[in-house]
Amino acid sequence: MIHAGIVDKDNCILGVDIIAITEKQLKKDIGLTMAMSIVIGTVIGSGIFMKPGKVIESAGGSTMALWAWVLGGIITLAGGLTIAEISTQIPKTGGLYVYLEEVYGKFWGYLSGWVQTVIYGPALIAALGLYFGSLLAHLLGIEDSWKTVLGIGTVLFLAIVNSLGAKYGGIVQTAATIGKLIPIMLIAVFGILRGNSQILDMSSGVTTASISMGAAILATLWAYDGWMMVGFVAGEMKNPAKVLPRAIIGGLAIVTAAYLLVNLAMLHVLPANKIVSLGENSAGTAASLLFGDIGGKLISVGILVSIFGCLNGKILTFPRVPYAMAERNQLPAAGTLSRIHPKFGTPVPAIILQVVLATIMMIVSNPDRLSDIAIFSVYIFYIQAFLAVFILRKRNAGQVRAYSVPLYPIIPFIAIIGSGYIVVSTILNKPVDSLFAIGLTILGLPLYWLLQRKENKVAAANSARIQ
After folding, report:
1. What three-state secondary structure class fits 253?
2. How many CA atoms lie within 13 A of 104 on its CB side?
3. Residues 66-125: pLDDT tens digits?
4. Using an 8 Å Cβ cutoff, are 300 and 280 in contact?
5. Taking the model in full, what pTM does it have?
6. Nearest Cα to 415, choosing from 164, 74, 38?
7. Helix, strand, coil fractions of the chain, as percent rounded to 5
8. DSSP class of residue 400?
9. What is the separation, in whole angstroms, between the first and last Cα of the chain?
């Protein structure tokens, strides 16, 4: 069995066991403190450094941008609380792929896995690679045109590291942990204390036609992404009925507060329109203004370490999805994609698939667009997962639940309505990107039917042989 553990978002530990583990096999060692640290770790990521400018640009100004971060946090919290109930009723690891298969059947599990394989995973890897390349080019003082080369080189390097064995990827993860926390803390504290720019009611400097609150919230959801992993460890908690909701509420409240503080600090140091124009380099520029050139460079290095660790975690874990699908004969070339390297014990073909797709995306697109496509594509299936709580309550009526989502059905409705707003808003404001994601999703349908037809023929042949 391949086990990818629970890796935080900047360490990007994503709980993806390929073979489902029953609750009886899990040790119940996780208390409230550890559970909250997992929540915070899985959510806080590169987005807080990369997205402030995009959120301000889309929102049209600083005040509405701050509201976008709050609303993104509320949607995330409602989603996390809802998924927590599903995870306790389906105590198997594998996340969205497993939840949808258990509730809606094999087809929907396959389709969510397909989207994670060809869109979500590669797009996130590509976006992080380009963000890393852009920041590294800025730090080194070379032209921004080098960001794609640097990004691709970094992705290929980490693919090799993770192909050599999961333990090497784990070393990178450990080293990246501090890199995430230091820049967030320093920018938030010193930015608020030393800044002198006006924070509220500052214009982004963009035209009215390009303003969209939906696009602003979508951008924040990149920073909040990772919350789906919150419920993965429910079966390992000492008392999930009490620990899980407290960990989710407390952890996501801390994350939302941290994001707001960083944004307030950056707006206190840099004018809103300057943050927009600087884009992903705004956090590094703010750090230079606060701590001087040397201090700013050290903070920028911390941000780079954070993104590097996040990218490493994605490359460590996302290939496990196509590997799992190949194990079930749900992808072409399943025999190849389900292979494990005999010496290193890693799914090398699946890693190569994800990296090749990510590299193509890095060449033809930009990180902001890729991150929006990734979040849009997966939120279509998140809505299904939120609706599943109503189905499971009806299906398991009369059974005692280890955990129930509070304020039911209000919290699930908030998650569904908020996610639906994001999906519809993206379709209206970014129809090309939305159609691209939907088109790639639909491409999985004939493939599924062909594979099912082949599987049915094999089953019929085996049955006839037995008779």
Report:
1. helix
2. 20
3. 999 999 999 998 998 898 888 778 866 567 888 898 999 989 989 998 998 999 989 999
4. no
5. 0.80
6. 74
7. 80, 0, 20
8. P
9. 34
